[in-house]
Specification:
Elements lengths: L2 H6 L2 H21 L6 H22 L2 H21 L13 E3 L2 E3 L1 H23 L7 H20 L3 H17 L4 H22 L2 H11 L10 H13 L10 H4 L11 H34 L3 H25 L17 H20 L8
Antiparallel strand pairs: 1-2
Helix pairs in contact: 2-3, 2-12, 2-14, 3-14, 4-5, 4-6, 5-6, 5-7, 5-13, 5-14, 6-7, 7-13, 10-12, 12-13, 13-14
Length: 368
């Protein structure tokens, strides 16, 4: 990588990601003492692997990755089909279990789909002079999304499916989608919500929504986790109860405390200040990703950065919202913080892509 490219890189992104990961490791250390820090130790290994994956994603020109994206897309479609035939874990067929390590293809599929969508949209804009607003062209874009989306819903993993939807929404907005489609989409969503709830969603998904609206209706059953999460967040107050001292965390009331409810652990043991810092850091991630999208040297780079910004925004909003009882529980991890190798590696590959795109841009410096 040339000296000029190194200067262009938005290194603040990496700093923010590492700080979030370190906070997550501290929380995992506290939350896993009763199992001899097993998940904490594994997460350190995944962190090292993630940094290596990030460097690879940063050094390979993203234009090459975009050209190869149809191959990546095809591979992950095959994996998303194959994972449906695995043994269910907690009611979902989302993981390949390889010698004690779980691999979740839907996480890595985020990268493949974003790259392939960037490839397709940029090709359409090149051919039709930056106009994607014809229904036939939008149909091509949605066809690319619908295949992995349906396979992920089949697992079922509604949280990851929503992440895909938010990513493509931001990408389409960046590509100049006509406002009439945006307004139409809002109307369709508003009309379809009651239809989905009453006629399409399975009973367990409906139950999650019902519990979200009124967790006290089943305090010892489905509402138990969210009630305990709220208690943990409230107990932390300003500075927290201290590491390994949180009541809900250490007495086993929070579950799963190392993944879905890791933010509750942080709020209880480290307090409102650290919990607020996490939100500020995530806002920094999203805004920096959008800035890279704005300053990227080409359409594909801008679209990739936009899609990544959408992924980061959704995971932050959904995870923090659900543990506070503001959004339904969907099992979405808090990126960089929650335990999980697939999630962490994917997150750092996305950071690597952003660093890659930022290195290729042309910065204009005004000197007076």
């Amino acid at each position: 990588m040339r000296k000029r490219e190194l200067k262009n890189i938005e290194w603040g992104l990496l700093i923010v990601a590492v700080i979030l990961t370190l906070i997550g490791l501290v929380a995992l250390f506290s939350a896993t003492q009763e199992i001899e820090y097993d998940e904490f130790k594994k997460q350190i290994i995944w962190f090292v692997v993630s940094l290596v994956a990030m460097v690879i994603a940063m050094l390979i020109n993203y234009e090459i990755l975009v050209k190869l994206s149809p191959v990546f897309y095809g591979i992950f479609i095959i994996l998303l089909i194959a994972v449906l035939f695995t043994k269910p874990i907690n009611g979902a067929t989302s993981w390949f279990d390889i010698k004690g390590f779980s691999f979740q293809p839907s996480e890595f599929a985020k990268i493949a789909v974003i790259l392939f969508l960037a490839f397709t949209i940029s090709k359409i804009q090149e051919r039709y002079i930056e106009d994607i607003n014809k229904p036939s062209r939008l149909l091509i874009i949605f066809a690319i999304l619908i295949v992995p989306l349906l396979l992920i819903i089949k697992q079922p993993d509604y949280g990851t499916a929503m992440a895909f939807c938010i990513a493509i929404a931001v990408m389409l907005f960046t590509s100049g989608l006509n406002k009439k489609y945006i307004i139409g989409a809002v109307i369709i969503i508003a009309v379809s919500i009651p239809v989905l709830y009453n006629f399409i969603l399975p009973d367990h998904a409906k139950k999650r929504i019902d519990i979200f609206l009124n967790p006290e209706s089943d305090p010892r059953g489905s509402g138990y986790n969210i009630i305990q999460s709220k208690l943990a967040i409230g107990a932390g107050q300003l500075t927290g109860m201290g590491l390994v001292k949180g009541n809900q965390t250490q007495l086993g009331y929070l579950y799963p405390k190392t993944t879905d409810f890791i933010y509750s652990v942080i709020s209880e043991e480290m307090g409102f200040i650290v919990a607020s810092i996490i939100i500020v850091l995530y806002v920094q991630l999203v805004t920096k990703a959008l800035y890279i999208a704005k300053t990227a040297k080409d359409t594909s780079g801008s679209l990739i950065a936009s899609g990544i910004a959408g992924i980061f925004l959704f995971h932050m909003t959904e995870n923090i919202g659900m543990v506070m009882g503001l959004l339904p529980i969907t099992g979405v991890p808090l990126l960089f913080i929650s335990y999980g190798g697939s999630s962490l590696i994917t997150s750092y590959i996305l950071i690597g892509l952003l660093l890659n795109i930022s290195s290729k841009r042309q910065k204009t410096i005004f000197v007076k």
